[in-house]
Amino acid sequence: MKDIHRNASKRISVRALIVSIILLTGISTAHSAPPDAEMCSFLERFHGHTCPGSLMGLRLGLAAKEALNAQGRITAKTLMLACSVDGIQVATGATIGNRALTLEDRGEMALILTDVQTDKQVEARLTQEAMNRAKIFRELSGNARTMDDGSPEQVNIKKKLTRSLTGFAQYLMRRW
Q1: pTM of the predicted protein model
Q2: How many CB atoms lie within 10 A of CB 24?
Q3: Residue 156 to residues 1, 111, 112, Cα–Cα distance (Å)
Q4: DSSP assignment of 85-115, as one string?
Q5: How many C-beta neighbours within 10 Å does residue 170 have?
Q6: Given this model, what pLDDT does residue 16 score?
Q7: Which of 76, 67, 75, 62 is nearest to 116 (CA)?
Q8: Contact present, 51 and 85 (Cβ < 8 Å)
Q9: What is the set of domains in the chain, with CATH numbers?
């Protein structure tokens, strides 16, 4: 299985589900609003699909950006080369292309944002619980890739993947 979201209708339904979760669970705080439908849609197009890694990067980037409260240019350093990088780029606007994002692959789900004007830094990390929830998705996804396309076992795993992704998105966004 190359992509658990092979056709457009599945992508749209997952995106709509995540956006609905974000909007309907009362996630916002007095400080900021959760990502809107446009941001989630852009992340999915930018990354190629929706997965826990890209959502973790989005969550890290938005939380760090809010905490930093920079008024000008920011730079970002991420400590893991994985799907989260795309979420970080979407959330912060710091990209490899604009030379505002650097990668140091230490296998740590962490992000360091710096306000270029004030040199103030903020470090954001996910909880161990978030990492454990993402691991469940990775294991299911790995199992699905070993099965014959369209087999009953793979169809069952894909259903579990959708439930896992939904639960993961709910968990991340509840923490807003």
Answers
A1: 0.71
A2: 10
A3: 13, 35, 39
A4: HHHHHHHH---TTTT-EEE--SS--EEEEEE
A5: 18
A6: 38
A7: 75
A8: no
A9: 8-174 (3.30.1330.130)
Residue 34: strand, helix, or coil: coil
Residue 48 contacts residue 14 (beta carbons within 8 Å): no
Query: Which residue did the predictor score with more confidence, 17 or 77?
Result: 77
Can you tell me which residue has the tokens 């852009």?
42
Kindly give the pairing relationship between strand 110-115 and strand 74-78.
antiparallel
Whether the CB-CB separation of 73 and 117 falls below 8 Å is answered with: yes
| Residue linked to tokens 């795993």 | 157
Element (H, E) at 77: strand 74-78
Place of tokens 């978030």: 130
The Cα-based distances of 78 to 109, 127, 129 in angstroms read 8, 16, 20
β partners of residue 75: 114
Assign residue 150 a region: left if phi > 0, alpha if psi is -120 to 50, beta otherwise?
Answer: left
Burial class (CB in 10 A: 0-12, 13-18, 19+), 67: middle
Q: pLDDT tier at 98 (50, 70, 90 boundaries)?
A: very high
In degrees and rounded to multiples of 5, residue 7 shows phi and psi of: -115, 160
Give the count of alpha carbons within 13 A of 98, CB side only.
11
Angle, helices 8-24 vs 37-47, to 10°: value is 140
